[in-house]
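Researcher: We're reviewing a set of sequences before deciding which ones to prioritize for further study. For each one, I'd like a predicted 3D structure that I can look through quickly. This is 1-acyl-sn-glycerol-3-phosphate acyltransferase. If possible, include the structure in token form so it fits the rest of the review sheet.
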Amino acid sequence: MKRPLFLFRLIYQFLLRVTSPFGVLLLRIRFHGLRNVPKKGPYILCCNHRSVIDPYMIAMAVPQHLYFMAKRELFTDHGPLASGFLHAMGAFPVQRDSADIQSLRSAEEILKRGDALAIFPQGRVVFDNTSFRPKAGAALIAARTGMPILPVSIWCKGAWRFGKRVTVRVGQMLPAQIFSGSEKSRKLLHESAKLLADRINHQLEEGHGF
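Model: Here's the predicted structure for 1-acyl-sn-glycerol-3-phosphate acyltransferase, in token form for your review sheet.
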């Protein structure tokens, strides 16, 4: 998957940096652990999924362009303009609940050229505080590419709605060695996915606390 044109990457950064101060205030977002965010990639950012605006909240915390893996329906169900905009910003589709080889290759290309990949491993929005239970795709990509995972959590009390206080917490990077060999063993892959889940669930347990 090629990088978006320079113009679109410039638009991404311009819109994000101009709107971020207002977004933080209007959405009542508090960030913790921003010191853990690398200034540049490659790495895989993994986060639980609480609402449709999660990509925006995460992007505010990351200085570089994030390339989001997004469900295919966002590209097919909302018309060509929406699909074109998503592609222009660097998002790419994944077919959920299937072995989508093309999306896997796109993810690997993004990481190999030194960019940051963002994934919501749950595969869909979870509106309550149910424990984070990721699918194994993120751990598999980390194992195949030898890239670390940055665990991020989004927490609010109950279902998210506009005006509710939100905490975005960035944890310490999980080194690539943790996921090594998982692409060759279903057991290791399951253990790697569980380790990622445990880390993000631990962050979620902190709630709004410091």
